[in-house]
Fold this protein.
Amino acid sequence: MKTGPTPSPLTPADARIGPKPPLRRFHQARWDEPLLFELGSPGERGVLPPLPQVPADVVLPDGLRRTSPPALPELSQPQVLRHYLRLSQENLGADFNVDVGQGTCTMKYSPKVNDRFVRDPKVAALHPLQDERTVQGVLEIMYRLEGLLREISGMDRFSLQPGAGSAAIYTNVAMIRAYFAARGEAETRDEVITTIFSHPSNAACARTAGFKVITLYPDADGYPDIEALRRAVGPRTAALLITNPEDTGLFNPRIEEFVRIVHEAGGLCAYDQANANGILGITRARDTGFDLCHFNLHKTFSTPHACGGPAAGACGVSAELAPYLPTPTVEFDGTRYRLDDDRPESVGKIRPFYGVVPNLVRAYAWIMSMGGAGLREAAEVAVLNNNYLMAKVLQIRGASVPYAPGRPRVEQVRYSWERLAEETGVHSEDIGVRAADFGTHYWTSHHPYIVPEPMTLEPTESYSRAELDEYAAILAEVAREAYEDPETVRTAPHRSTVHRAREDVLDDPATWAVTWRAYRRKILGE
Amino acid sequence: MNAHPYIPNSVPEVKREMLAAIGARSVEDFYADVPGRIRLDRPLDLPPPLRSEAELVRHVGGLLRRNTSAEEALSFLGAGCYHHHVPAVVEEVVNRSEFLTAYAGEPYEDHGRFQALWEYQSLMGELLEMDVVSVPVYDGHQAAATALRMAGRITGRRRLLLVTAVAPDKLSKIKDYVRPDHDVVVVPVDPATGLADPAAVRAELAAGDVAAVFAEAPSASGILDPALPSLAEMAHEAGGLYVVGCNPISLGAVTPPAGYGADIVCGDVQPLGLPMSYGGMNGGFIATRDEELYVGEFPSRLFGLAPTSVEGEYGFGDVAYERTSFAVREQGKEWVGTAAALNGIAAGVYLALMGPQGMREVAETILANTRYALDRLAGVPGVETPYADAPHFADFTLRFTGPQTSAEIGEALLEHGIFGGRVLSETDALYCVTEIHTKDDIDRLAETLQEIAK
């Protein structure tokens, strides 16, 4: 019902809606949602399980019968649904924003149709120990996916078992260890060489597997220092674990020489292809001489990132290393697909059963929707987008790109806000928090910060020119604020679900609270 | 080529404009650092792309139709992957784009992810009666392997005693993973009963240098070993830790391992609201007491609750981040990366829906169905239930004494539309029932075996 004074007569101009402002007037959802434990009432139920139709009250041995029920909250179904849907609205998925700010982690568009396949009971309700005759479809998809990855990388065999990229790095390290053990060199080849611009898991997985880690730092141009490599290799070298292009976005033009130097010292070379998206169809791991490689199927081949997993990894190896692949592999005899567990030299099981199968199905579907030319198109557009965004960012006051000035970057760029920080006192972390006020995600980079005040952007092929312009405009606006109104940046976020948390509370054993029960005991004194 | 629907800037005119804006002649300029010798001089040899979404659906759907799902058959498969009911609300939540496509946002744009995962930790904390639970690691195998390495770091000792039946796949993972720092000693269970052998465990403990005694509750044979509490005492008397792997869906009825002395508890959340997905949907949990020594040894992320500058507002962030490889590379504890976060959120939604009563009921139903299956199948000629005196949860061993092997029995069952259990040996197989099985289902298995097993 309309109220108020009678308006003057309308003209078409009154119905005209003005142009959008240059930047989105975003505000993240703020439901001020309570903790689950503060909701509900004793006796409420969310879902009812089947009751037994057979004699119940099974006797358990002394000490094994739970005496008091778990102190879970008691909630009706609509309350649970509303709680979690409110939380979902307070979360910025890649489907909602120009999600280019998580450099080194290439999230791209994850086609919706592929999600349909994995929700189908023909995937979701398969048990991994079913008779092979009843799972020929899923085995064929796994077999075909391996074939596609072989062609994309040039490698001879793949395992699709690792649960994610770091699990694949670990798997490669485990295979390297098994390879040298089989040659009687397990004791002597105990060093792994990696670079500071490779993912931390390269160093950490090698250490976990028992290797000493040697880290190469960049030369003056930002490429891994080849003289440092020459000094590092020797009879103790088991392997080189390296990313190319590195997280700086620079492709190492002497990569073949790196491989040759390590091979001449008797070591193996493993290619971390987390940054493969920009080189699909351009260059292949095996053609450069690598013995092992791995892909992050969730990054390069489009499976959704799911808040940090489940993801999926794939390890590719040369024929010489194939005996060490995790068990089982998927084989085809011309008629039937089967799982081969008879692999005596295998490193064994890396995870339960065969891999994160839903993501294997999605990755297969994505590659089949692209074809060879489509993969190359994805790579080229990703690289075009990256260099386009770099040109835009370099126009922003206070931003720079360290190393090799004028050289192109491939998949991503590690930028520096060093000048801006010196001139304004605003740090890269602050810029990231302020960027959230404009509806985007931005993360600095992995530690340690070799590049001061770092920011790593990786646009992938999934964003339009207008979206890249929007992202650059947001950064430009935050940089302008840093110079003209730094307090606004330093006190961000202003349009978020929450304000900055007390981080010191999280580092102090007296106050950290990982669970509700710990919070009640330690903080509330209950 | 034509513009690809997944690639906005694949329109040739847009590309030209962008190149012009940068001052580049072609994308080749950007690959100037890739030497010609390693350039692929031909197109990738892949199948022609399925141009339309309709063709893709037809192709992938056609392959998937060659599968027979466990919903179309009557399945008695368990052995580490369990067919439970997944509530519709769980699917609704985890299929929301906001959760499905998010990654590693900061609390300021991804508050919902932090809260949902902290609540997952908290719900698991109540189920396990432990104050510290990690953000999910990959799976239960990884959780067990890491829990054992944590025990090794805490005690500074080398030997790990595995004292209940452990599935061969899990044992393989553990052995590979702890190899640089630990010796795994499998203390065989009593072949007559399937139970842990306390005398053998004592003997191994007496040899010293034991970091941890590891037990599974239930064991790989489905047995809830009555010795679980006394194994804790033995481990502690020898100065070692007690690490227990458990099936979380059992804990509505079964004492959580912390209640009988476990120091570190681990397992897989797959039974809590995750579909089987051909063995692909897992999330590992690791839980400990809230002691600095224990917290410091977790490799995975731990989310914590903290105040913000606004009264009544919940803030979240990483607890003791400096222990992780994200912070200090190889100086961190093992490694951390993308693992299985959304599966933790799914498990949280499941626990929120079930509540204390639901968890009790589902566990009681599974206990009752398992006992009924053991009793009913023991009465089938040619079928024995070798460890039936022990309490079981979900999984149980059948021994076939007739002329057919357990694999042949499985073949015959398949012809009747039944997926029989995992073959363990010529004579034995591991069968499984959960809350989704009715009395009729179990009777049908018994009647079919009566036909084929004699």
